[in-house]
Write a structure and sequence with these properties.
- The structure holds 2 protein chains of 2 kinds.
- Chain A is built from 14 helices and no strands.
- The N and C termini of chain A lie far apart (about 55 Å).
- Chain B has 2 domains: about 30 residues; about 70 residues, no CATH class.
- The chains are: A mainly alpha, B mainly alpha.
Chain lengths: ~260, ~100
């Protein structure tokens, strides 16, 4: 596809086009890819029991294993996928199902906005394909990379983590569909998810306003947990980031 | 709406939220206060996911039943803050929970 697109560029001889691409410098970086892939594995483990649960719910929901399985990698977001399956199993109106998915996943627009400046100037194909993989853990890793990381390294690090987590997630859902309910609830493996997010939260706090943002975001999320259609999370995140920005502005005013 | 259509529409919604600002790139700009707030997306989001997942079951009344989980989270948190090691903190948190629930 890329060669077809390149050959439509008029007036640029083949050799020169190749050298342009080298100047742009986004050719495959195996080391960065492998680093991203390695770094995401530990973050992906808590998703394995979660993905298997979704597989079990797909098999039991009666919507059909094939459509459920395809849906798991079309949607690629655990919480929204689980809500979708539960609502569809109850034969909820499609508009309500989609509204719920939109509310739960609206946090991804915040992730997208937070990463926006880091991917400016990246190839167009990356800015269209990359966001498909923007799962919470992929965002956590991408957002934690140093500001001065080279663009080529950043791109391939992102894909290394993205494709590894994609594979772990789809394999987990598939295993859940095929094997059924093999995870013993007495192992409390579901608890690994809040453990992971607590860790990611602590790692992402780099200054005092970060503490404010986390405290307000977490506190409001507890208060809004019962809000309809999963709308509480995005309210909590908006409150948290606002509190962080206000705290940062105030601390600057004080010095 | 058929099951397939609903599933693909849900996928499209998810993709659009994720692609929105990354695709827009430098064609959009935010006021400084908004740009500033975006530095806190990670701590605010992860706290908003973690806390209800941990305490959300029975909300505030559940501290009595949940103290093994709260201790386990504290152990994991200490390891994260001290060594910044995610695998170790996950393992320590889970083992702590298993030990407390096994002993009590």
């Amino acid at each position: 596809m890329s060669s077809a697109a390149a050959s439509t560029v008029p007036g640029v001889p083949h050799e020169r086009r190749r050298s342009l691409r080298q100047v742009n410098g986004f050719s495959f970086d195996q080391r960065a890819f492998r680093t991203g892939a390695t770094d995401i594995i530990a973050l992906g483990f808590p998703g394995i029991p979660f993905g298997m649960v979704i597989g079990v719910v797909i098999a039991e929901s009666g919507i059909g294993s094939l459509v459920g399985w395809v849906g798991s990698w079309v949607i690629l977001a655990g919480a929204a996928n689980l809500a979708l399956l539960e609502l569809m199993a109850e034969r909820t109106n499609a508009a309500i199902v989609l509204l719920t998915v939109a509310f739960i996943n609206s946090r991804h627009a915040m992730y997208s906005a937070a990463l926006r400046t880091r991917f400016v100037g990246f190839p167009r194909w990356f800015r269209y394909v990359g966001p498909y993989f923007l799962i919470d853990q992929v965002f956590a890793l991408a957002a934690s990379q140093p500001d001065d990381m080279a663009a080529r390294e950043r791109l391939w690090n992102y894909f290394g983590s993205a494709m590894t987590l994609w594979t772990m997630w789809v394999a987990s859902v598939t295993a859940g569909i095929l094997l059924g309910d093999v995870i013993n609830p007495d192992w409390h493996l579901a608890f690994a998810v809040p453990l992971l997010f607590t860790g990611l939260m602590l790692l992402s706090i780099t200054n005092r306003p970060g503490i404010t943002a986390a405290a307000v975001g977490g506190g409001v999320a507890l208060l809004t947990a019962d809000f309809p259609q999963g709308s509480g999370v995005i309210i909590a995140i908006l409150a948290g980031v606002s509190a962080g920005a206000i705290a940062e502005t105030r601390s600057e005013g004080a010095t | 709406m058929s099951t397939w259509a609903t599933v693909f529409a849900a996928g499209a919604i998810t993709y659009l939220t994720r692609a929105s600002f990354i695709v827009a790139g430098d064609r959009v700009g935010f006021p400084p206060i908004v740009e500033r707030s975006l530095r806190y997306v990670a701590p605010a989001s992860f706290a908003a996911i973690a806390l209800p997942a941990m305490l959300g079951g029975d909300r505030f009344a559940s501290f009595g039943d949940d103290w093994p989980r709260i201790i386990a989270v504290c152990v994991a948190a200490i390891i994260i803050v001290r060594w910044r090691n995610v695998p170790a903190s996950l393992l320590a948190g889970m083992v702590t929970l298993w030990l407390i629930l096994g002993l009590t």
